[in-house]
Amino acid sequence: MIRACPHCGKNNRIPSAHLADHGRCGACQGALLPAAAPLDVDSATFADIIQSARVPVLVDFWAAWCGPCKMAAPEVKKAAANLAGKALVLKVDTEANPQLSAQYNIRSIPNFAVFSGGQLQHQQAGLVGHAQLEQLALRFA
């Protein structure tokens, strides 16, 4: 993934295995903090992160037309900020990635899944608060 340095603005390539790690900008040596926001991913990026992440990965399967998904978005964002360095949070648009929806048998959204060690550990449909999302992710740390 490419992330811009918050200090100098230069782009840095971050391997998927290190998205939850602290790092340094290649240009200015400024601190690059762990991912603290939900990452919108496609199927290829999803597979790469799920297989290489060294921390649990919480996935929000959602769609733009879904009212409960819109209500869940701020909770997912808050969970991502609170889980920075301890877990990663991904967002998968079910309309843009129907193959992932089918692969994980997504029948209703929002649908939250937790992966650890490249394997699906837990899946839950319905609106969930950030505290519950955080507990869910950390249960598989």
List the helices and strands and how they pair.
Blueprint: E1 2-4, E2 11-13, E3 23-24, E4 31-32, E5 39-40, H1 43-52, E6 57-62, H2 67-83, E7 88-93, H3 98-103, E8 111-116, E9 119-125, H4 130-138
Parallel strand pairs: 5-7, 6-7
Antiparallel strand pairs: 1-2, 3-4, 6-8, 8-9
Notes on the structure:
The chain has 141 residues and is an alpha/beta fold. The protein is 30% helix and 26% strand. The protein is built from four helices and nine strands, in the order E-E-E-E-E-H-E-H-E-H-E-E-H. It has helices spanning 43-52, 67-83, 98-103, 130-138; strands at residues 2-4, 11-13, 23-24, 31-32, 39-40, 57-62, 88-93, 111-116, 119-125. The strands form three sheets. It has a five-stranded mixed beta sheet with strand order 5-7-6-8-9, sandwiched between helices. A two-stranded antiparallel ribbon has the order 1-2. Helix 2 packs across helix 4 (130-138). The longest helix has 17 residues, at 67-83. The two termini are 22 Å apart.
